Amino acid sequence: MTSLDEDGEPRRQVGALPFRFGRVGKPKILLVTSRESRRWVIPKGWPMKGRKPFEAAAREAYEEAGLRGVIGKRPIGHYLYQKRLKNLDAVLCQVKVFPLQVRKQLKHFPEEDQRDLRWFSPADAAEAVSEPGLAALIRAACRW
């Protein structure tokens, strides 16, 4: 059973698409594992009171992956996915995705013991994620 919010809309989340350019100028995408299912995802979470959506996305990237960088103020798109809650209900979430050009990757960060991180080529990142909408967004964003 999938639940929506009280208005029949998906629940809103914000996420960061962390990227950097490798030695030969090719883009790389950083993915993290989700805490529960261990699938590859982007850093994301619920909006934060007192923070703009892009600021909340940057904060999630720091908490989940130790990333610091330049976050885009406009989303590059959004995707839908089913979030499994602790009570095992599933809720439909719409994630607004903001680009994050990574300048620094910290060794220590709040969720370092809960997640794995890996840099992927855009094609491999799109293959690694299970949400079709996120895969399409990665492919579209990385047409440099």
TrEMBL record:
Pfam families cross-referenced by the UniProt entry: NUDIX
Record carries keyword Repeat: no
Gene3D superfamilies: Nucleoside Triphosphate Pyrophosphohydrolase (3.90.79.10)
Cofactor (UniProt): Mg(2+)
Molecular function as annotated in GO: metal ion binding; pyrophosphatase activity
InterPro entries: DDP-like_NUDIX, NUDIX_hydrolase-like_dom_sf, NUDIX_hydrolase_dom
UniProt KW keywords: Hydrolase, Magnesium, Metal-binding
Superkingdom of origin: Bacteria
GO CC annotations on file: cytoplasm
Nudix hydrolase domain span: 9-142
PANTHER family associated with the record: DIPHOSPHOINOSITOL POLYPHOSPHATE PHOSPHOHYDROLASE (PTHR12629), DIPHOSPHOINOSITOL-POLYPHOSPHATE DIPHOSPHATASE (PTHR12629:SF0)
Protein name: 8-oxo-dGTP pyrophosphatase MutT, NUDIX family
Organism: Methylobacterium phyllostachyos
